[in-house]
Design brief:
Largest sheet: none
Helix content: over 70%
Order of helices and strands: HHHHHHHH
Oligomer: single chain
Number of strands: 0
Number of helices: 8
Shape: flat
Distance between the termini: 170 Å
Radius of gyration: 58 Å
Length: about 325
């Protein structure tokens, strides 16, 4: 076989291979288109709470030709459960980097709210990425579409990470500030306790020194009296004590009439006060009795007047009847 025959054979084989590849690509494209349309229709008609479930079901029902396509992803991460209404709300609101620009997180509440919304944004981004992938399969340039979906997801996650980073940094700094504040308060309290204990210790030492000095002074006075009276006979001190007792008795006896007179005067005043109280109560009772009698007399007079009026009216009523 010459060189020209070999080249013609290879050219024919190349043409057949190209035709087969084109036919295979056409079949794969048709299958992808049908599958993508079915997935898009199912996603648009899904009820609340079924977006993630239908996305996962579409992944599981992918055709073997679609799974074998070079541009298709190896495996998509299942998106967290989220209702359709919540997903639409997250998609409609402004990006998280606009709601929380750099330097806007200045409180614990804002930081926690930003973290919660970032978690929701991440869930929505995962679900949007799966939906974008399925929307790419019916297209002719599948690889470019998937690359754009990945770029969109990457940019979204970049913004989410920036907000999460700032929120977590603020929370860590707030924790450190709280700890430093607690340590400072504890340090100040310890210093106050130490100063108070030192003052108490000094006061106790001063009180102890004062008591020792008072005890020493009393002992010195006692010793002085002992020294002064050491040459005095014992019976002299006894006689001096007896004289003091007799003097006290004489003073008590002299003051006895005055005390008796004061006691009698006090009893007289008590008796007068009791008599005055009884007289006041007697007059009060008498006034109440007289008031009750007057009231009773008035009631009796009113009853008599009423009876007289009734008797006068009876003849007057009987006279027209007789006529």
């Amino acid at each position: 076989m010459n060189k020209k025959s070999m080249q013609g054979l290879f050219a024919d084989a190349k043409g057949v291979t190209t035709s087969l590849c084109g036919l295979m690509l056409a079949l794969v494209t048709g299958a992808c288109a049908a599958q993508g349309q079915a997935s898009a229709s199912a996603a648009s008609d899904a009820q609340p709470g079924q977006v993630e479930a239908q996305a996962q079901a579409s992944e599981d029902q992918a055709s073997p030709a679609q799974q074998a396509a070079p541009s298709a992803p190896q495996a998509a991460t299942p998106a967290p459960a989220m209702s359709r209404e919540r997903f639409d709300e997250i998609e409609a609101r402004a990006p998280i980097t606009q709601r929380y620009p750099a330097g806007s997180i200045k409180s614990d509440e804002t930081a926690q709210k930003a973290l919660d919304e970032a978690a929701e944004e991440r869930q929505a981004a995962e679900l949007r990425y799966i939906l974008d992938q399925r929307a790419c399969y019916p297209k002719f340039l599948v690889s470019d579409c998937l690359e754009a979906a990945r770029d969109r997801k990457r940019l979204t996650e970049k913004g989410i990470k920036a907000v999460e980073y700032e929120a977590k940094v603020y929370q860590r700094q707030a924790t450190v500030d709280d700890r430093d504040r607690s340590l400072a308060e504890q340090r100040a309290k310890d210093q106050e306790d130490s100063a108070r204990r030192l003052a108490d210790q000094k006061q106790k030492e001063a009180d102890s020194a004062r008591k020792v000095e008072e005890s020493r002074s009393k002992n010195s006075e006692v010793q002085q009296r002992i020294d002064q009276n050491k040459n005095v006979p014992a019976d002299y001190r006894v006689r001096q004590h007896d004289a003091e007792v007799q003097r006290q008795k004489a003073e008590d006896a002299a003051g006895a009439p005055a005390r008796a007179a004061n006691a009698a005067e006090r009893q007289r005043r008590i008796k007068e006060a009791e008599e005055h109280r009884q007289e006041v109560e007697r007059k009060k009772a008498e006034n109440e009795r007289e008031r009750a009698e007057r009231k009773q007399k008035q009631q009796q007079q009113q009853q008599q007047q009423q009876q007289q009026q009734d008797q006068q009216q009876k003849p007057a009523q009987a006279t027209p009847a007789a006529n």
